[in-house]
Amino acid sequence: MTPQTKARIESLVQKNKVIVFMKGNKLMPQCGFSNNVVQILNVLGVPFETVDVLADSEIRDGIKEFSSWPTIPQVYVNGEFVGGSDILIELYQKGELQQIVEVAMAS
């Protein structure tokens, strides 16, 4: 990953309380896993931003290296990597995701 790509990713993660690096965007997810994440965040009523990795190959490859996580989507809350689709589903079902995002929104 180039220093410029790393800086772009860091900036996106830091300036957005909740950001999802995904295939497509929140209005038009391009894969089922990305859609799962969007649906969960919508149910929680959380404001969030998305980055379409299909539109930017540098971000698509860079985010995997940045997080040391091999798959997309990737969700960051308050600058911290939370996980992908399976982890978000699990956190949501346990009621933990709601707490994570409430703390982020309050800070």
Q: What gap, in angstroms, lies between the N and C termini?
A: 31 Å
- How many DSSP H or I helices? 5
Strand content: 15-25%
Domain module count? 1
SSE succession: HEEEHEHEEHH
Average of per-residue pLDDT values? 94
Which residue ranges are poorly predicted, with pLDDT under 50 across at least 5 consecutive positions? Answer: none
Choose one word for the global shape.
globular
Multimeric organization: single chain
- Biggest sheet details: 4 strands, mixed
| CA-based gyration radius | 13 Å
Alpha-beta classification: alpha+beta
CATH superfamily: Glutaredoxin
Would you tell me which CATH topology applies?
Glutaredoxin
Strand order within the widest beta sheet: 4-1-5-6
Number of strands: 6
Class in CATH? Alpha Beta
Fraction of residues in helix: 40-55%
Short summary:
With 107 residues, this protein is of the alpha+beta class. 54% of the residues lie in helices and 20% in strands. The protein has helices spanning 3-15, 32-44, 57-67, 85-94, 96-106, and strands at 18-22, 24-25, 28-29, 49-52, 74-77, 80-83.
